[in-house]
Write a structure and sequence with these properties.
alpha+beta, BirA Bifunctional Protein, domain 2, 5-stranded antiparallel sheet, 3-stranded antiparallel sheet, 8 strands
Length: about 775
């Protein structure tokens, strides 16, 4: 992982006191020859960073690292020896003043030594502060104190604040003069001027500037060598605020944590130190939390994709139903209907075209993986894609071909293509395995999130088009209803009642189907107590629980597959056993033996998994773990409760709509009968003026006006023989304007009326 550390120090302690050489010697465990240099801090530190003399001891190197690179920019009199230079600084410099300034920079494990040296040289050759200074550089490489699998490569730059002025460039001063105090009046006789770049007044501002420059250089080197890493000098709080501004809410949530407490290099090696233990536990928790956030984010993105697709498909279906089935009869009569229909057709086309360019999270991940592949891996992937396309084409041709000869040729070609697909999949196994590693998974997620961020405007456009389509569809439905329902005197023929009731059925059916789609898409987001428990087990065991479950499933699958493959050979052995031929039997057993061996291996593997499962269950069932698990479960279920409430509400709504749809369909039976009875008549029906329709009609459809829908449903109830509705309906003969009481005909009456009508035709 890319690591940031940048500090600038002097030979003063935290209280501002000058550090004597003896103290410095104690710190670096030197002895013997260094006793004469107790107060020569610069010399001692130069030998320390270059890992010379006592500083080369094994124990010291284990803790402080091996010096892997040295360089310097020094005056001629120092003879390329940093110790000589900083020794002179101690002797000839002002007493009780820092004889050097040290820059300590973290370098990167992901880079080679040469690439890290490139970072250091870029800083030294380009950052203004270093251009007129003498300095010594050393790069150390050591094992990380808190992680045996990591290296901590870092750089020390010792710099004298004394500036290389024009006099120094022309004629180097001797050490006794160079380190003297600067004289403004007589510059030739005085020492070199001290750079105030990191003085007390400007230290904070210029330190921030340098840290940013160091990060910029490092990140540039990462990009140059194709490494998808970055470092950042900003605090966690600043990084989180930046992530929020950029809309990267997942990163913001990951960064929403307190910063690590620095415990010091020496203390880090003491694994019994309570601070070290606490730090390691905290890092483990942060890793688990980060993985959980990323997993939740992936799931959420996939769910959002599913919901968006379902909503768009539902909106398009409803729009197509309205324009294809319900507006044909009125389109020619009402101009607004034709205008709205054209708008809807335009929006449908726009949605189809925009959908092609909108990335789902899975598509973004696939593109990210492809981008992170090597040239050879990309070539294999492209070849596999072409083979898969060819396979699909061949399958379609075979399905549509009746000629046996041609079909056989196509079958042979398909078999060859499928073998090529299998071979390419085998070649790509290392690539697929690579992307299961944590480091690559993180790279893929990061790249995918970046692609989705770039694609966000198109997704927003698609959602906007969908909303516009919904509005125009609703407007068209409203106009259709108004033109169907808005009949004079609120009287309706049986045929008109049927038309309106059919539209009510369509409305309720569409609402029912839409709610069902919402319900199905939401189902995957609802976390049951059992699922929450398994998620908690997985978190508590650092994902070992899920790994073992998956391993168990795969072994069981392999055993079933092996049993199927071995069945012909088992049958052969059983068949040969019927004959007294040991040669044939041995041959059959030899053919069967590899399957038996493989099966035994799988049994052993399965037993090993069961053993590990038992150990894991024992760990999980421990009281302290159960308490932790229960806390995780409660947290998961609490966070999921709004989705659960929405899910339960949808289930109730679907149940209500299902009942409503059934009742409306039942009413359609009587209405259809009334239409047949009223054929070739001028009868219309209305509600008697004194009737309160809302007291009878108990089916409610929100999409129609209350009075209109109640009237239609009351008439439909009367046509179906509902006793309470029949007395409330008036029958009108439009030829005579005679108003009669409606009388519902039973089956016998209907048959008699139909017979009379037939006899009347023949009389």
């Amino acid at each position: 992982m890319a690591f940031y550390h940048c500090s600038i120090k002097t030979s003063k302690d935290k209280k501002g006191n000058f550090i004597p050489g003896k103290k410095h010697a104690d710190y670096i465990n030197r002895e013997g020859e260094y006793k004469d240099y107790d107060n020569k801090v610069g010399l001692a530190h130069a030998e320390y960073i270059n890992r010379e003399k006592d500083f080369a001891r094994q124990e010291f190197l284990r803790k402080h690292g091996q010096c892997v690179y040295k360089a310097n920019k020094l005056p001629k009199w120092a003879k390329g020896n940093p110790s000589e230079f900083f020794k002179s600084a101690d002797i000839y410099g002002r007493k009780n003043k820092a004889s050097y300034r040290e820059f300590e920079l973290a370098l990167q494990e992901e880079l080679t030594l040469e690439q890290n040296i490139e970072i250091v040289n870029t800083i030294l050759n380009n950052y203004e502060y270093f251009q007129d200074k003498y300095y010594a550089v050393a790069i150390h490489d050591k094992q990380a104190a808190l992680d045996n699998n990591k290296q901590q490569i870092h750089c020390h730059i010792m710099v004298s604040d004394k500036m290389i002025d024009d006099i120094e460039k022309t004629n180097e001063r001797p050490p006794e003069q160079f380190f003297k105090t600067y004289c403004r009046v007589n510059t030739d006789k005085g020492g070199a001027k001290v750079d105030r770049y990191f003085s007390k007044d400007s230290f904070g501002k210029n330190l921030t500037h340098f840290r940013k420059y160091y990060c910029d250089v490092t990140n540039a080197i990462f990009r140059k060598y194709g490494i998808d890493k970055t470092i950042d000098y900003k605090s966690l709080k600043m990084q989180r605020e930046e992530a929020l501004r950029n809309g990267d809410y997942v990163r913001a949530e990951i960064l929403n944590r307190p910063a690590e407490q620095y415990i010091g290099t020496i203390a880090s090696y003491d694994k019994n130190n309570s601070l070290v233990q606490k730090l390691l536990e905290n890092r483990k928790y942060i890793t688990e939390r980060t993985n959980l956030i990323l997993a939740a984010s992936e799931t959420e993105k996939n769910i959002k994709d599913t919901i968006l697709i379902d909503k768009i498909n539902s909106s398009m279906k409803e729009a197509n139903d309205v324009i294809n089935e319900r507006c044909n009869t009125l389109e020619s009569k009402v101009a607004d209907i034709s205008i709205l229909k054209n708008d809807i057709l335009f929006l449908l086309n726009q949605i189809k075209e925009t959908s092609k360019d909108v990335l789902s999270f899975e598509e973004a991940k696939a593109l990210a993986k492809y981008d992170l592949m090597t040239k050879d891996e990309k070539a294999l992937t492209n070849k596999l894609f072409n083979f898969n396309q060819k396979s699909i084409e061949l399958q379609n041709k075979i399905a549509n071909t009746e000629n046996d000869k041609i079909r056989q040729q196509l079958d042979n070609e398909l078999e060859k293509t499928n073998k090529g697909i299998s071979a390419l999949k085998v070649q790509l196994r290392p690539t697929n395995k690579k992307f299961t590693q944590s480091a690559f998974k993180a790279k893929v997620t990061k790249k995918a999130n970046y692609l989705l961020l770039e694609n966000a405007p198109l997704r927003e456009k698609l959602e906007l088009l969908k909303d516009k389509l919904d509005v125009q569809t609703a407007n068209l439905k409203q106009i259709l209803k108004e033109n169907i329902i808005n009949l004079p005197a609120q009287s309706y023929s049986a045929k008109e009642v049927k038309t309106i009731l059919d539209n009510l059925v369509i409305d309720v059916k569409n609402s029912f189907e839409y709610k069902q789609q919402e319900y199905k898409s939401l189902a995957s987001r609802v976390i049951s107590p059992q699922r929450a428990r398994e998620m908690a087990y997985n978190v508590a065991t650092n994902h070992k629980y899920r790994e073992l479950k998956e391993a168990k499933r795969l072994v069981a699958k392999e055993k079933i597959k092996l049993e199927q493959e071995a069945k012909p050979f088992i049958n052969q052995v059983e068949y040969v056993q019927k004959f007294d031929d040991s040669s044939l039997l041995n041959q059959a057993k030899i053919q069967l033996q590899p399957y038996i061996t493989k099966y035994q291996e799988l049994n052993a593997k399965e037993q090993d998994i069961f053993t590990k499962f038992n150990e894991l269950e024992a760990f999980i069932n421990a009281p302290e773990q159960q308490e932790k698990i229960q806390s995780i479960i409660e947290g998961i279920l609490t966070k999921n409760s709004p989705i659960k409430y929405q899910y339960d509400t949808l289930r109730e709504q679907i149940s209500s709509l299902k009942t409503e749809l059934k009742e409306l369909k039942n009413l359609s039976v009587g209405v259809n009968n009334q239409v047949r009875l009223d054929k070739n008549t001028n009868f219309k029906y209305s509600i008697k003026s004194h009737t309160r329709t809302t007291s009878v009609a108990n089916i409610s459809v929100g999409s129609m006006s209350s009075s209109s829908s109640d009237t239609i449903k009351l008439l439909a109830q009367a046509f179906n023989g509902v006793e309470g509705a029949i007395p409330l309906v008036a029958k009108i003969d439009e030829q005579t304007d005679e108003v009669l009481d409606y009388k519902h005909l039973n089956i016998v009456d209907k048959r008699a009326k139909r017979s009379n009508a037939i006899l009347k035709e023949f009389s």
